[in-house]
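Anyone? Bumping this.
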Amino acid sequence: GAVVSQHPSRVICKSGTSVKIECRSLDFQATTMFWYRQFPKKSLMLMATSNEGSKATYEQGVEKDKFLINHASLTLSTLTVTSAHPEDSSFYICSANPYRSPEQYFGPGTRLTVT
Amino acid sequence: AQTVTQSQPEMSVQEAETVTLSCTYDTSESDYYLFWYKQPPSRQMILVIRQEAYKQQNATENRFSVNFQKAAKSFSLKISDSQLGDAAMYFCAYESNFGNEKLTFGTGTRLTIIP
């Protein structure tokens, strides 16, 4: 089956610093990847749609200057949390669809803690 | 906009018994996909089953089956012969068939398996 990886799985950073999370489709190409945020015991909240070779599409209420998304290749999307604050601490998950498949495959997630 | 509702925050079932998780959705579209995803304590999202709206036949995957009622906009998941490994959060999700492949998730149902 399709595999999506995320790196790092856990990261702790200091307030005011930036942190980058990578999402890779390992055995398929993905023109579109998705970034979600999940609070404890809550559902997944879509933050943005990452489009290969073009700008990401952000959901309402998500600050595009704070959550920078780059989708430079068909297998890699990155999410950079800039000037992180404790309220940005969360679980971030990415997903991707194989070409012409409606099924999304999810990465294992990244737990971000901002101190 | 589409919405997905899971009215059961928590469910429990005796091991080896059958349990049904409810999901309703609202859409004005005629062509779409519905999914059930499982999120165990590891927090890895796992696709359980998928249903295409144009198909009348209910999808089945081993012990997992759905009851898809398009007119009622209902999409329940039945788990037969429940096993301890089925314990997880279960999310119902909707995806439009009109290009952008965004998933809209329900709030989830936490399933506990009683040994």
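Late reply, but here is one note on the structure posted above: Chain B touches chain A through 21 residues (CB under 8 Å).
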